[in-house]
């Protein structure tokens, strides 16, 4: 099952990265893990983006890190508010950073590094506000496939 892929320390590393990144930005970051992805990875990520209600943030600044570990597929998906402001290659630069770790089998570290870098980059467009509310859970979500 997907929820068994990371051990407790790895889950903590990822959740701590989300919390740290969200100290820099009002953006909302989530991680979703599937064992398999039988369709286009961006379509699957978009499915989970909607299912996790990530499109309901006030500034439309949610980011989903989606990983189907058995099929070696992943995507980083940002909401409309982000994509209107960031450069075209924004998500590819984050993904390239993560691929290096993934190729070495360090999935938790790759996710954590991508999440931290996203927070730093999003700070330019969506800086943290003192009255910021954590609109989405920082916990990792898991699929059944």
TrEMBL record:
<dbReference type="Pfam" id="PF04536">
    <property type="entry name" value="TPM_phosphatase"/>
</dbReference>
<protein>
    <submittedName>
        <fullName>TPM domain-containing protein</fullName>
    </submittedName>
</protein>
<dbReference type="InterPro" id="IPR007621">
    <property type="entry name" value="TPM_dom"/>
</dbReference>
<feature type="domain" description="TPM">
    <location>
        <begin position="4"/>
        <end position="115"/>
    </location>
</feature>
